[in-house]
# Entry
Amino acid sequence: MSERRSQLFGVMGEFSTPEDLLAATKKAREAGYKHVEAYTPFPVEGLSEAVGFKWTAVPLLTLIGGVGGGMTGFGLQYWVAAITYPINIGGRPFNSWPAFIPVTFELTVLGASIFAVFSMLALNKLPQPYHPVFNVERFSQASTDKFFLCIEARDPKFDLVETSKFLQSLHALHVNEVKDEE
Amino acid sequence: MSSVTQNLPAGHEPEPWIEPGHTYASVTDKISSVVLTRPLGIGWLLGFAFLFGIVMVLNLAIGWLITKGVGIWGINIPIGWGFAIVNFVWWIGIGHAGTLISAILYLLNQKWRTSINRFAEAMTLFAVACAGLFPLIHTGRPWMAYYMMPYPSTMGIWPQFRSPLIWDVFAVSTYGTVSLLFWFVGLLPDLATLRDRATNRWQQVIFGMLSMGWRGSARHWHRYQSAYLLLAGLATPLVLSVHTVVSFDFAVGIVPGWHTTIFPPYFVAGAIYSGFAMVLTLAIPMRKAYGLEGFITLRHLEQMAKVMLATGLIVAYGYFIEFFMAFYSGNKFDVFLAKQRLHGPYAPFYYALILCNILTPQLLWFKKVRRNIPALFVMSLIINVGMWLERFVIVVISLTRDFMPSAWGRYSATVWDYATFVGTLGLFTMLIFLFVRGLPAIAISEMRELVHQDSHGNEGHQ
# Structure
């Protein structure tokens, strides 16, 4: 590992309660930092707004998946029963649409669910086995009971010394540099 | 709801949903240690060995079935369905409680779902796996099962989409897929917890891969919650549709006793009824064995007992309406079938069903019974038996006593029927055994959220 060059990804402050983290995140944004990210062991209300994240495409993509699934379901049945393989049963219409509703419904739900899950994973850029924040040893606590705020080096206002001091001033328990190995 | 809680006089506060004194770290420790550090006890090993033996019986039964054909079962015209369909409906019904707990109670903001949703969802998956097995092997030629899927075959034939049996294929496979997705999404943050707390290389690698690099960033959580809420909203109508479609297998046919409109709602209620019974059957030993009484409290058990009572009453109403409609319709075949249930050769099953499903749960009106753990456990077993008898009564009595006396028959199961059924019971329980030791049986991140809400005076949703 030693021959690998490492560069700075950001500075990370550790907090012990979600309230402290939320307050610190808001202050960091007020101080003009734009590239901030907060890490928590459970969802904290208001935190995504605090880091400046307001809109996600997951619901829209889910809708698209649902509509697509439903149209596929009905289209498939119509095509099979009325066009490619019509069977006359007692003179009933080939396009007996009420009988096609259950499968249409199931495929709507299936399409929407698959889109909901995979759009969530894709937009979160998962699977992603490596991320610089994992280089911080204390970060393993982020999935148990500690709350982290990371100000990233790509932020125009970022300065290693100044930003570290800023995090100290927010009463972070620990402040760590986050290294990115290339 | 918080104001209501605060205005209650002293001594009337509801019991907490989690033992007081727990912190984020203590719930994490307690639940993850079952997976990560607890050694395999002799009890678990013996239990697993026994269940593995039963799964071998299942393999034998299926192997013999494939060798000889469905003639080794007790089915013959006029009884083409027999145990296979009884067991299919029973298993798929059991799965429904898992989805109800994880999806419907989530939409209703019921906090008590938190400590039971994970293993109830696992129960759903395993029950659906057992259920799916039966129609598959009942086809007689399971290696041809892909005929049920719409695919462009060289024979130029397609499935008959006007048949409830094809609806079933789509309903059950969608249900299995969505349940699996829902379960996995719920597991994702907990897998990351296990990755970070892994005590050896194997755990690190396995949980590291499964958790996909979850970091718990605010953006992650935002999309995650959005997807989870949408899945809950999608799974809610899905779970109602699945047993509705299963009931269509019967209700769309013209066989007396099947052709009624009460079937869909009463099947769904029965499914949830038997599912909650199975959740109790599993939860009571599990909380004891792994010391999880602080998470799955007496209040949880009582709550589940109340759901059982409510759905049990809906089922009782369904039985009553079946009878009422048979006589009200004046259809002589329906009237005859209703009388056959009371006086026919299978009448003892019907009376046993009334005893198990209608009379026994009436004890749940009493708080003393709802809070008596052994009584609840016994009752949950009785209700499971009762729900199995219900499906037996529906399948067998109608098929043995339809329109023409010349077409009547009798049904009795063979040793292979029993071996297959007991085999799936073993498979289900073995999978539960593996699950409780391989994955967190309680949703850790949701428990942390519950600790957070409790520490803030119930200000969160109630």
Q: What stands out?
A: The two ends of chain B are 6 Å apart (CA to CA).
